[in-house]
Structure formats: structure tokens, C-alpha cells
Amino acid sequence: MTTPDAVYDAEQRLQTILKAVVVGARVQDPASRPAGEDTTSAFTSAGALLPPYDPETLCLLVEHSNSLRQNVDAYATNIDGNGYRFDAAIDFDAEDARSKVADAMTLERLAARDAGTLPEGVGLTPSAEELSARFAELRQLARVERARLDSFFDFACFDHSFVDLRRRTRQDLEVTGNAFWEVLRDGKGDLARLVYVPSYTVRLLPLDREAVEVRERVRVSPVSFDTVSARRRMRRYVQVQGTECVYFKSFGDPRVVSRSTGRVFPDIAALRAAKPDDGPATELLHFAIHSPRSLYGVPRWVGTLLSVLGSRQMEEVNYLYFENKSVPPMALLVSGGRLSEASVPRIERFIEENLKGKANFHKILILEADGAGTGDGGRAKIELRPLTDAQQQDALFQVYDERNIDKVGSAFRLPRLLRGESKDFNRATAESALRFAEDQVFQPERDEFDFLMNRKLLADMGVRFWRFRSQTPVTRDPERMTEMVERLVRVGVLTPEEGRLLAGDIFNREFRKIGDDWTKRPITLTLAGIQTGVEDLKPKTVGGESLLPSAKQLLALREDLRAEEERLAAGRLDLARRYQDVEHVKVPRDEFARWFGEVPDAP
Question: 555 and 534 in one domain?
């Protein structure tokens, strides 16, 4: 168990390192390193570049800060904690799928013509037979590719999920400004696993002097790639963890690099000949928060470093108050005499033993003073004076600490609600704060991550028909959005199929596709087609007989009933109006019988 003294000593070392970093100097603390080893000298001997801020010190600072962790967790939860899905490049069940496939074939043939590989006699526009054959082929390939994608991402990591890998990566990225993935390949050179690498253990090596020919996939159509070559200067990485030093190469680097020395060899045979127990280095994928002055990433909160340090100092002052309290709660003043020697321990014992509990609520303390030998006629005066006004009643520097917390939150551009403070919020302000954070902070970060996944990982895997997309939290009101979609579908602005797509985006799930024709046209036209018998609608049949005449009869009966109800309502309204215009006159019974031939019953 960590004692308060040990925590305080660690904080003292942390303050020394951080203050040295702030003023531009660098202090290495061996006691804070794994196994007591000076890793800075190990990185220096490996030729690594020096980061602008010590990554391990930044990790320690987040552990001991009262405001950084909740901001980092809010980023990891809202950006990377909602899962992912794959969007189709071409929806083969849509009405315009064939036209998109035709456009893709045209783009592929244009690229082949420019490269001089288009066969003679082949036109740019595909024929109907070619389009049908290509459509069926691509549809089957898309299904196989989706199954391969699901299998890879379900088992992308050894002991945790891909979502958990993303959360760890986001935490490293926001704490140190850098994050790393180790990319493992199988015997065929295909991607096999993604491994999380702690960012504080990795350093960058300078760019290699000689450029390397790298082959990359470039998209030429929505469903096809072309492989191009480019010469790039690549970078290597070194990891020092404990007493082990391991080298990595950049993602996509085709060279054979030694895992233990970082040297470049022409092939694996030459590597084995130089050192039999050595092996080729694996690839490393580097994420970074861009800094204009450094090849390393810099955390976004580093500008509030002094505020973080000040809040920590404030916490220490308030904590040490309980250990070093110097003002007693009460003072016993004796003037004109002195207490006897037996009174002092008796007072202490009385306060400790006889002033606790409701049974001792009315206990009386009797004090005796000896006034003999004084110049005031032997009269002594005893006074109990409280000193609570001089004591610290609450924690100090609360406004200063609250302001520092707001500064750190503003560096992340997060509202207080997402940092764990729920006071002074109602539903309207909470929804506005969440909408701001989603639009201005979280979604741009997701888009950047998705671009990297599609541009590097999925392109390296040869994925053509699907796009990686991070899911968003359901911050909308489901009832309100459902009502809006229902109204738009009812008035014909959206088709039922489009409404289902919007519902899938709202609830972050993929609904089963319905292949019927009525889902692809506005619901108002569908209803009108049933009433008028539009020919393009396929009538439903039961036992070989069409249900369309029965549907027409039911609709006609419904209209007749509605017209009859309107006629009766109009008749009742006319009778009411006439009754208001009648003048009531009293007529004798015999005269009424003479007029109408009958006498009404008495009321």
C-alpha cells in the first residue's frame, strides 16, 4: 500500500522534473524509471530524437492531477467507445447500383487506356452483357470481403477488443501526444494482428538518408485500386522497456530491418547470417497530435501545465493542514494566579473522556486556580477563549482551483457536463453542450481516424467494397427523431427505404433490407396506386386470385361510409339551426287534435 509520505516524495520528484522541463532544462530521475534504469541514456545511445516533453513524466502528471483524467476519459469514451461499422462503397440492392458499376467500369478502362494496358477493340462504355456479368461478380466479391473484414476486426487484438485498443490509443494520444500500434503480418504478408504499444516507451529515429521505393494502392474507381510506386524517406523507431531494446520500421516499409540492432539488410538471409538469433523488425503505425516545432506529437493540454501544477500544490496544502495543524480550538487563560499542578492533567482527562456522547451533554467543568502570592489580593481569573476564528474552516484556494479546472477543460474544448459536473444544467443546456462537443470536437477526430483506417489499413488489406466508419453516440431524442422521420415518410418527402436508413443512423444499427418495390417509392404514391390500380404495382394474390378488387371495394365502402357520416352531420346541423328559428306558441289540445288528427302525450 502506498503511504502518504511515499506519494509526497514521488510528487516532489515529479515537481522537480516538471519545473526543469518548463524552464527548458532536463533532469533525469532514475528512481522513477523501470528497474531503476536510466532510459534516456539508452535512447540517446540508440540515436533517438529527444521529445519536447518527457512522456513518462506526462503520464505521472495525469495520474496525480485532479482535472486531466476526466477530460481524457471523455475523449476516449465519446470518440472511440461507440464501436464501428462498414459502409458499402456501392449498395448492390439500390436502384442505381448498375449505373454505379457501369461508371466504375468506365473509370477502370480510362485508367487502363492511359496506362496503355487497355486491349484493342474494347470500348470505354461496357455493354449490357458485360455489365450484367461484372455486376454479379462484384456482388459476390463484396459479400466475401465483408465476411473477411468482420473476421479480422473481431480478432484484431490478442487479449482485448478493437474498441478497447482504440480507447487505449486515444488515452496515450491525449496524455503524451503520441500513440503507436505494432502491425503483425502472417506468412503471406497480410495483416494478422494489431498490438498496443505504450507511447512512453517509444522514440523516433531520424529519417533515413536514402529514399526507399514504396508501393501504394491508389483508388481509381469506387471498387478498384491501382498500385503505384513512389520513393520516400522512411523512419525507424526504437522501444526501450526495462533492459530490452527493440527496433521497428514504419508501416509500409518494404525493407528488412534488424529487430535488435536497427540495421538494414538486403534480405532475411543476410540478416540471419549476421546474427542467427536475430529477426526482422515489425511495422509500427504512429498517431500524433501535430506540433509545428517537433516530429513528436504534443498534448493539447500542455499550455495549461502551470495550472495543473498549481492545483496539485493547492491539494497538498489542504492535505498537509490535517497533519500540521498549528492553531488549537480553545485557549485557557489564567490571570492573577496559576493552576495547580493537578488541575492540568485533570482538565485534559475531562475533555478526552467526559465530553463525548449525549449522556455528557450537560457535564460541568470546574476549574480551580491558586491566587496566593499574587499582588491582586489573592484573586485569580480564569477565562476559556475559543480560537475557531483563527482556524482554517474550509479548503484554501477553491476559486483558484476551480479556475484551473476550467482552463484545462477549455484546452480540451469540453463543457462541464462531460467532465463530470452536473450542477447548473437543465435539459436544454445539456443538449446544447452535448451537440457542441459532438459537432466541434468528437466528430472531426472520428473523421481523421476513419481516414487513416481507410487510407492505410483497409487499403493495405485490399478492401475495395467497404469503408470503415466510427459510430456516434445516440445524442438525439429517439422519440422526436422517430416522429420527424414518420412525418417525412407520410408526406412523401422520404421513401420507406430512406426512412429505414435514417433510423439505422439514429439507433446505430443496421436494419434488414426489404426488397419490395413499395419501399423505393413515396408512401403516398403507393397508396394512390392501390386506389387507382396503377399498372406498375404488382397486385398481391391469394390462391391465384388478385386481392386488388377486394382492396378497391373496401376503399370504396370506406369512402361511402365517410360520405354518409358527413351527410348526417350536415343534417343535424341544419335541424339545430332551424330549431333556433322556431317561435314557440301554446295551442289547446282539442284544437291541436283538429289540426293534426292526434293529441301528443303530456310532458
Answer: no
Is residue 33 pLDDT above 50, yes or no? no
Q: What's the pTM value of the predicted model, to 2 decimals? A: 0.71
Domain that holds residue 143: 87-150
Joined together, the cell numbers standing for residue 168 give: 487505449
pLDDT in tens, 373-414: 555 556 777 777 776 665 666 667 888 888 999 999 999 999
- d(CA 584, CA 180) in angstroms, rounded, equals 98
Unique residue bearing C-alpha cell 499574587 = 374
Q: How many domains does the chain have?
A: 3
Q: How far is CA 262 from CA 30, 237, 257, 281, in A?
A: 26, 8, 6, 8
- Domain limit, last residue, from 517, 538, 559: 538
Instruction: For the chain, give the mean pLDDT.
Output: 80
* Same domain for 105 and 137: yes
Lowest pLDDT segment from 79-93, 237-251, 439-453, 538-552? 538-552
DSSP three-state, residue 330: strand
Record the cell numbers describing residue 384, joined without a space: 476559556
Q: Is 49 a member of any domain? A: no
User: What does DSSP say about strands 541-542 and 545-546: parallel, antiparallel, or unpaired?
Assistant: antiparallel
Give the span between the Cα atoms of 522 and 45, in whole angstroms: 70
Q: Is the residue at 428 inside a domain?
A: no
Q: Taking the alpha carbons of 55, 59, 64, 70 in that order, is the dihedral positive or negative? A: positive
* C-alpha cell of residue 419: 467532465
Residue at 589 is within a domain: yes
Which of 493, 513, 538 represents a domain boundary (last residue)?
538
443 part of a folded domain? no
CA-closest candidate to residue 478, choices 452, 457, 459, 505: 505
Helix (H) / strand (E) element for 191: namely strand 191-197
